[in-house]
Amino acid sequence: MPNPKKKKKLPPISSVSLRPELSHPPAGATHLRPSRRRRLPPEPQPPSGRRPKPPQPRLLRELSMVQFKNRYLVMEVFVDPNRETGESDPIVLSSLNISKAIKDSLQLNFGECGLASCLGSFQVKYVNHVTKLCVIRASRDAHQKVWAAITLVRTIGRCPVSFNLLDLSGSIKACKRAALECDEAKFEQYKLVAGDKVTPEIENSVKNNFEKIKLLEN
Fold this sequence. Notes:
The protein has helices at 20-23, 58-65, 95-118, 143-151, 172-194, 200-214; strands at 70-79, 123-128, 133-139, 155-156, 159-169. It has 218 residues and is α+β, with helices and mostly antiparallel strands. A five-stranded antiparallel beta sheet has the order 2-3-1-5-4, with helices on both faces. The radius of gyration is 40 Å and the shape is elongated.
């Protein structure tokens, strides 16, 4: 029988490069240095005695830029419309009793959920007890509900009242301009009706209220 073919002996693994293309650099290639990390400039240090502010989350930054839209209602109040002209007012209007009457009307006509949906931005910003003028702020989404509740108010305390809308504004600047014009016109009308009953104290009180209108803010 013929002898089986002898297997060729392979050189040891240590003498053979597994990746010959990496064992020697290609011809003409220069020696490559390992890349170094670029050093960043040092962070500025806060002044002595002050702590650096923590980074503000992105969501909070976006929410801080959102401006809530409001509506401003300039209303006149008729206190006891059936009483005779010249009689003294049976009640003194204030932001507290007007606000309470409107909230009671909201709860009575729209329920607790309707009241809660309107309380976010609701506020009686200004009241003039002489001219019976008031400014009410409500959110843009709930101002019609607040307006409806105001028209349904029939009494403040035990005194019959009724409200009338004079102006509806979307900015405090337009509201102040309209409220000042209406308040001045109503005070002139009040002086014609009251006559000699207009004292210097009443005039000073009304002038102070005019200045309050100019200082109204959101």
